[in-house]
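Final report, Chapter 2: Outcomes

The project's central promise was a pipeline that accepts a single protein chain and returns its three-dimensional structure in a standardized token representation, suitable for archiving and comparison. That pipeline is now operational. To close this chapter, we reproduce one record exactly as it appears in the project archive, with the input sequence first and the structure output second.
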Amino acid sequence: MAERTCILVTGGAGFVGAALVRRLAASGYRIRVLDNFTTGDPAHLAGVDAELIEGDIRDPRALGAAIAGAGAVVHLAAAGSVVMSVADPAANFDVNVVGTFRVLDAARRAGAGRVVLASTGGALIGDAAPPVDERSLPKPISPYGASKLAGEGYAHAFAKAYGLRTISLRFANVYGPWSERKQGAITLFFRAIHRGEPIVIYGDGTSTRDYLHVDDIASALQLALEKDVAGGTVLHIASGTETSVSELADLCRAVAGRPDHPVEYRPRRPGEVERNFAAYDLARQVLGYEPTIGLADGLRRTWEWFRDEVFAPAEVS
């Protein structure tokens, strides 16, 4: 993809967007961000050479204006909480299914050559014997997982019906800097440690996930923009390592220097997968993707970012 190509990043002021936009800008792309700031924050992109537009992906007028002249789209905007999708499935459907359809249709109308979509592995596949991969049969157990599966379905249909080059990347559990608004385990664990409150684990701590640093996700997204990949392709972007929630809590406590911080166990929540990690062999083959940041090192970096950028300013104020 030629230098100075304009890339539209939906949800680009969010957690993954903050890492991706920096990476793409440093690589010479012109970046346009569309974000309604529900979970994103314009401060995440302070000092970054990117055009920032406030708007919603479900608003055809705002979306049409943002996508005009863009050579490709990275679609990150989403309602990303499994728990919230169970509580309000209609809202999740509206953002993730209707919103994704509108992004794909706007890309088709505007003549954008490629759309890279953020999907998910665990929630979309559901309860299946890991490691899961692209051949695993999706059986989502939450509205969030179902919404991402619907988005992949529309992406494949737009590739076959209209020739739009769509690539859906099924993310592992992402963590790293700029995740202070994310309602994931690592953010919640670090906040609990900082506040002196118990780390809360839902279930007995044996449920597992595949954790991947946001820099590795951003690398995969850029590769999906640049490599010669067939439209309708689906790829798992993961670490390939299974980590239990109890192991994660121990690592978080260790990097924070508080190995004896208390842990509280509560009943398991509905809609959450019990075990999940993914094989990324196809992404390695198709994109040349390879994760580079191990969990212990990534958690240390993330704790240091929270300590310096989130906790310290709050204490000063």
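Archive annotation: The chain has two domains: 6-175+210-237, 185-208+242-274+295-316.
This record, like all others produced under the grant, will remain available to the consortium after the project formally closes.
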